[in-house]
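pls read this stuff:
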Amino acid sequence: MVGRLVECVPNISEGRRRDVIDAVVDAVRQTQGARVLNVQSDESHNRTVITFAGEGEAVAQAALALVGKAVELIDLRRHHGEHPRLGAVDVIPFVPLGETTLEECIGLARRLGEQIWDALRVPVYLYSAAATAAHRVRLPDIRKGEFEGLAEKMLQEGWAPDVGDPVPHPSAGAVVVGARYPLIAYNINLRTTDVEIARAVARAVRGSSGGLVNVQALGVVAASGLAQVTINILDASKTPMARVFDLVRVEAERYGVEVAESEVVGLVPLDAIVDAARAHLRMHSFDRGQILEVRLLE
């Protein structure tokens, strides 16, 4: 049984220096009650996704320790990568698991924001379910302008941080903290090095430009040199992975390009994989209860 747990999935702006990544992850491992579940780095994005879980307060303490170590070791003035970023710790979402409610995660996010500012003097934006205004719900809207444009953005009407002074931390920028339900970070590599094709496909796929609801997408260059559509599926129960993959494949074929491969970044809910298997294998009335490991763990 999952019980009352919280998942936390910080994204830090470092995907190349293993000593820095290890030090940041160790800050979580040294926090009693927080269990590291997954660490996945991408050199091209220059970004690492860290997944850990535990009871709410332990997870929040681990997140604060992680931010402290990242602010100490990561300087965005010397950081370059394919993925947009606003801070040394770019985003910290709290995700309810089991009997934990989204409202409890909103409380954790808002308290952590205050603690980050008090301890580290890094300003904080609140997003998703923890957002304080409608125009701050979407992470891409907050991140627009990135670290380099942050000082100017903070002075614009409606864009002062939720917590802290409207001045970026000189090396760590700002942190975006929030609460949300599970999402799937999903990359699809195309068999081309032309990033403009990936950008065109991303525009066709993402919800903000008329594509699929619950989908955010960008076209970037993968570490392999291939063009990549990097995707967040915000609600896989309403917009399944298989549907996203199929639309990317169809749109890429319009440019004479095939899909090379795809990858999940971090962890993925089992139901999302079951849905994909059901769709592509055309399995009639298949249920997750038919999975051996699921039955053994009940």
